[in-house]
Structure formats: C-alpha cells, structure tokens
Design brief:
205 residues; alpha+beta; two-stranded antiparallel sheet
C-alpha cells in the first residue's frame, strides 16, 4: 500500500517537473518569437519602396547625418543640371531655370538676369542650340559650415553644324534649410559664382 503511494507521489513529481519544463519552453519560445517579430518590424519600418517605371524599388531609410555628403553633392549637381541644361524652347528654359532658382539664393537669380540681358537665352533659341551639362566632379568641404563646394563640369553646345565643348567651374556655399517639394535635399546654395567657362574645342558634325 505504502509502496503504491510512493509510486504515485514519484509519478506526480515527474509529471509536475515535466509540466514546469514544458511551460518554461513555451514561454521561452513565445519570447523568442516576439523578439523576432519586433526586430522584423523595425527592419520593415526602415524600408521605403519607390515606384519607378512600373517597378517597385526598395530604398533603406537612414539618419540624415549618414547621407549629408551624398545629398550635398546631389543638390549641387541637380542645381547645375537645371541651370545649364537648355533647349531652344523658351518654356523649357523658364521651367528648368525656375527649378534651379529654388535651390539657390539671389546670386543665381542675379546670374540668370545677367545672362538674359546679354541675350544668352535668346541666342540659344534663335540658333537652335541644345545645351547639356556633364558633371566631372564635385568637392564639398564638410568640415566647416556653411559647406564650401566647387563644381567641375563641361557644357556641350549642340548646333546643326557643330558641337562645342566648354569647361565649367563654379563655387559657392551650402547652408541647411527646410525640405520641401521644390527642395528635397534641404540645402540652399549661397554666394554662387562662375570661376571658369571657356571653350575647349569645337568639332564639325
């Protein structure tokens, strides 16, 4: 009789130990799954999908401080592309230069006014010139604020009978401003000036 009771007690202890181990395992598994779900959620929140030409492209979000040099160079490149890429079409010229003026201060507007007075844009239209810009390099001093930059590029002037290549070197400073639809990088070019803009060669088409 006592032996049976001892067996029952032993069996009960074994069952209790088994259930304790099983419960601990369940809680451990639940904790591990919760951690994985939390980690996956954080990763998912840092992903941005952009729709371009019917395709979803993934972009990873990050702190701005990690991308400041890249954004600064792209801001400078975008400004110069808008300002110097021109077609013999007055509406295209105005639309392109307007986009550029959102990215810079009054020094860019002053340069635009000077070129307008000299008949630069009118000459592009009357001579049917298509002007494009090729960026060679952009240097930005990120150690000092506002950030000083220097742009190196080439202008390609395409005429019906010839192609002229001109060197273009400009410099200026970048300061931080609020981002907007017209200024997605949140920079403004200040004290912008052209250092060099000379013909390199002209080739017959």
């Amino acid at each position: 009789m006592f032996k049976k009771l001892e067996n029952i007690e032993t069996s009960f202890q074994k069952m209790r130990l088994f259930f304790i181990i099983a419960i601990c395992a369940v809680f451990g598994l639940a904790g591990w799954v919760s951690y994985l779900a939390y980690d996956y959620t954080n990763i998912s929140q840092n992903r941005i999908y952009i729709l371009a030409n019917g395709k979803a492209l993934e972009a990873v979000a990050g702190d701005r401080k990690d991308n400041v040099p890249v954004e600064a160079r792209d801001h400078i490149k975008t400004f110069h592309q808008y300002f110097f890429t021109l077609d013999p079409d007055e509406s295209q010229q105005k639309a392109s230069v307007l986009k550029a003026l959102y990215l810079a201060d009054e020094t860019a507007k002053r340069e635009f006014d000077n070129l307008t007075e000299k008949g630069y844009y009118t000459n592009i239209i009357s001579s049917n010139i298509s002007q494009t810009l090729v960026t060679d390099s952009i240097s930005v001093d990120m150690a000092n604020y506002p950030y000083k930059f220097k742009f190196y590029g080439k202008q390609i002037l395409l005429r019906s009978t010839s192609v002229t290549t001109r060197s273009l070197i400009t410099e200026g400073y970048l300061r931080n401003v609020n981002r907007s639809d017209n200024n997605s990088h949140g920079f403004l070019i200040e004290r912008w000036s052209t250092i060099e803009n000379n013909d390199i060669n002209t080739a017959v088409r």
